Amino acid sequence: QAFGTAGWRDGAAKLRDGAGKLVVCRGVSTIGSQAPAGGSPSAVAPGSAEGPIDLLTDVVAHAPASCTYAEARWVENTEELLAVVSGRPEDPELERSRGVGVRVRARSGWGFSATDDVSKAGLRRALERAVAIAEAQPSRPSPPLAPIEPAQGHWSGPCRLDPFALSLESKLELLTDADAQMRTDPRIVRTEAECRSAVTRTALVSSEGVACSQTVTQCGGGIRAFAVGDGEAQVRSYPSAHGGSPASAGWEQVLELDLSAHAPRVADEALALLTAPPCPSGQTTVILHDEQLALQVHESIGHALELDRILLGEASYAGTSWVQPEDLGKLRYGSSLLNVTADATLPGGLGTFMWDDEGVAGRRTPLIEGGVLVAALSDRSSAAAIGLPASAGCARADGFARQPIVRMTNVSLEPGDAGTLEDLIADTQDGLYLEGNRSWSIDDRRLHFQFATEVGREIRRGRLGRLYRNASYAGVTPEFWRSLDGVCSALAWRVWGLLNCGKGEPGQIMHVSHGAAPGRFRGVEVGVA
Predict the structure, then answer these.
(1) Is there a smaller number of Cβ atoms within 10 Å at the N or the C end of the chain?
(2) pTM listed for this prediction
(3) Checking DSSP bridges between strand 405-406 and strand 395-396, what pairing results, if any?
């Protein structure tokens, strides 16, 4: 088994089975058992019978008296990328990593060190480096960390079909068929079909009693068709332009996308865009498809509400925020229809977990209610810095060699009552419907933005009309969200995954998800690219 024979043995564990159902077990050792093809990568040090929890407990126990806090975090990741491009399979990419990050707080300073030597001696050397770094920091007043209920147990995310138990041939066959279905016209100059699969196993032990482990499986896939003709180049993708909308799930996620069935439509729409007129410019009513609206939430709400950015902790790299700490509880962020939550319990979300990387239990946190800002994304340090009673459970790290920082979980626009997309279009006299992200740009305060989409469609007298190419729109964050006057209902609400959320110095890439239903905005500037 991936975590060996020594896990947790005392107390109650909150668990989810392969279908994601919550169960409770007591007095047992519950260890993840999913394994990549070719056998499980060993999760113990060579020659050792101890599992991660035991090794991490040992290193934390050796933290010197000068440390007011210590944690050790094990991360083992296996990731596979398969792609077929214009009928030819690309070389499969298989990445495996395993190591431990040690973080301590000593004399008011933080120290962090990581190692891929997961022997006892290797982890103790990492501890010594972390302590030396912390003790070298200049002394300054530092509030205690926000309180925590120590996490105990093991949790596994949903996975009905283990992607690493399937043959490489069967997965490539699925992609090859989808790719072939798009190559229907010589003007289609490039086609892509790809899938990603990953299994991540983590374990965390802290000096405050945390001793927990998690196993998360993520899968997704997508297709794209590139068309060229008459001096014009266009692209169309499915299900999204961001890694095929992956989810916390097994291979069933890829099968449910039914890539081959959508491939002819993707190619036809790419070809149609070649002869479509350009997107008109001016101010108009805009309806955003839920995938594009999910990215809009990510860029202009999610990042703007990261508390470390608000407190200028990311100013040297990722930027700051137009939001200020004193805005919590009173800032009018958008219209009364704007309701946004951060939910680490959302089924299928890439930001779904039982505990974050500080051992804080995953939770659902309202961020904006009725258009008013009520909370921010925080970890234990940033929450304590402004006197919040608890962390929002948003500490996440990219692998073992990076320390946890404030990251999004699943930040979602809650559904409204405008019915289906067809209902919302029928209720719109004139405007523009935009679908499929093509590019985006936003300033480092998350205030001024510009997006381009793959598809634009005229809305005329409540119906979709002409197809437009090179559609785009721009705005200022609070003005844009205050113009929101319609959000489709729960049946039109979907969760979209993003694989490329970048932040931190040194840089970290995080997987996050956003739920959204199509939304309508008035007086939006379009045709700006």
Answers:
(1) N
(2) 0.90
(3) antiparallel
Q: Which two tokens stand for residue 452?
A: 């381009």
Q: Which two tokens stand for residue 493?
A: 């609400």
Matching residue, tokens 């805005």: 327
DSSP H helix total and E strand total for the chain: 10, 25
Distance CA 478, CA 483 (A): 9
Q: Which amino acid is at 300?
A: S
Q: How many CB atoms lie within 10 A of CB 501?
A: 21
Who has greater pLDDT, 33 or 299? Answer: 299
DSSP-derived secondary structure for 92-114:
PEEEEEEEEEEEEEETTEEEEEE
Q: Do residues 225 and 266 make contact, with C-beta atoms less than 8 angstroms apart?
A: yes
For 246-292, give the secondary structure using H, E and C: CECCCCHHHHHHCHHHHHHHHHHHHHHHHHCCECCCEEEEEEECHHH
Q: How far apart are CA 380 and CA 399, in angstroms?
A: 19
User: What is the DSSP annotation of 329-367?
Assistant: TT-B-S-TT--EEEETT-TT-TT--SB-TTSPBP-EEEE
Cis peptide bond upstream of 239, omega within 30: yes
What confidence tier does 50 reach under pLDDT thresholds 50, 70, 90? low
Amino acid 370 reads: G
Q: For residues 489 and 492, what is the distance between their CA atoms, to the nearest angstrom?
A: 6
